[in-house]
Amino acid sequence: MAGVKTTIIPGRPRLAVDEAGDGKLLVFMHGIGGNRTNWRDQVPVFGEKFRAVAWDARGYGDSDDYDGPLDFADFSADLVRVLDHYGARKALLCGLSMGGRIAQDFYERHPDRVAAMVLVATMPSFGEGLTDAQRAEFIRLRKEPLVNGKEPKDIAPVVAKTLLGPGASAESFDRLVASMTALHKESYIKTIEASMGYRRTTAMAAIKAPVLLIFGEEDKLTTPATGKRMHAAIPGSRYVEIAGAGHLVNIEEPRQFDAAVMPFLLEHQGLAG
Question: How far is CA 157 from CA 33, 139, 154, in A?
Fold first, then answer.
């Protein structure tokens, strides 16, 4: 990607990020089956106005694996390191699915370091709005085959089909399969276990930072109904529904996604620094 460079943030574990631009810090965070390449359409575009950074969460992509189990709060501790690395007192956060949960968790722990949040296809807590059957299917599709000896490449095509909208392009499907194929098997299992065991629910009414919620019309995992409930609960929040998109909104409909997010971030960039 033109103008995009990869940086390694030191510490344990080391974190790989793609970055572009030199404005106020904007951090993109991927979902449970993704990596920083999920934001390849956004980093150069938003890098024209911000310092746009997309990370590989610990145990993903080119970031290091780690010893022992994962505490979901570890992601927030890593995000502190990212902000400190760039000398940002307050940052703009954009997280999809698990990335949105990380953003919410980070806000609860460090509200003074969040300028504004874009929460994409996410939920206040793991499994919010899902039936017991849907939770069981989530686990069956993702964790159980890996525990029983399969590799991420074996589950990638099946899971990808459940996440994309019916009109998603072949390129979107291929990109999602590629990111899932690249998963670190043991770290991915740790992430699923930590997510399932994480019962903390974000206090929506207590969020004071500006929030933009973006959901896909055809998302069967984090449905528009979930987004609308969050919108009703978060004071002053804004809600945008992307027509025809499934769970991977920014990959399936990048132009619509960027058009919704850019004005919001430009409006609130003065809060970052």
Answer: 12, 16, 7
10 Å Cβ neighbour count for 73? 16
pLDDT digits (tens, 9 = 90+) for 156-207: 999 999 999 999 999 999 999 999 999 999 999 999 888 877 777 788 999 9
Alpha-carbon distance of 269 to 76, in angstroms, equals: 21
How many other C-beta atoms are found inside a 10 Å radius of the C-beta of residue 203? 13
**pLDDT of the residue at 28:** 98
| Helix (H), strand (E) at residue 160 | helix 152-163
Tokens of 86: 């760039």
Residues of the chain short of pLDDT 50, as ranges, are: none
Amino acid identity for residue 103 in this structure: A
Question: How far is 260 from 212, CA to CA, in rounded Å?
Answer: 9
Which of the four CATH numbers 3.20.20.10, 3.30.70.260, 3.40.50.1820, 3.90.226.10 does domain 5-271 have? 3.40.50.1820
For residue 176, the one-letter residue type is L
Token digits of residue 100: 């949105």
What does the DSSP 8-state code read for residue 39? G
pTM of the predicted structure, to 2 decimals: 0.94
Distance CA 153, CA 109 (A): 35
Residue type, position 238, single letter? R
